[in-house]
Amino acid sequence: MALGMLVLVGAGGVASAAATQASVSSQTFQLDGKPISTEEAAKAGLACVQGAPDDVGTCFRSSAEAARATGSEAAPQRFGSGSEPAFCVIPNAMVVYENYSYGGWSLWLTGRHVWYDLTGAYNDQVSSYEMGDHSGHIASDSYAQGLGYNYPGDTGVGGCDDNMSRYPYQGATWNNKASSRYRN
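The structure corresponding to this sequence follows.
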């Protein structure tokens, strides 16, 4: 597969990049071996893990259960203080959260080198994140719908932000603007 990079320049000269690689625009989930929709999982505040593109994702009742399932049992280590985002270390997964300060439902991504859309109840609902042990991207549009803008915060190894509102996005903030993510 040929890989490339496309760079778009938006209003105000803000550059946005998106890899021209494979994407996953939907994924199925299960809880206790039974199918569950993103709406049901989000409403119940579940922690759902997405792996390889063709795998069925698994939802758990807590982030602690998801951490055990991904081999990330150690509590996240967060370094930093003040108005700047902390440096976080979570092995084996990129995690996006519904609420500020890593609260609400969580969506764990262990798959790599593929754009994963935030579908259904997860689209445009992310307020905090932890990149984990790989760098990546968080984008404003679903990959299949036109590339969008990349989140300007720290998306390098160990990058995290407990409040995505600290960055502006088209007259608002990045809170509840994420529609896709990519894990290197």
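The longest strand covers residues 103-109.
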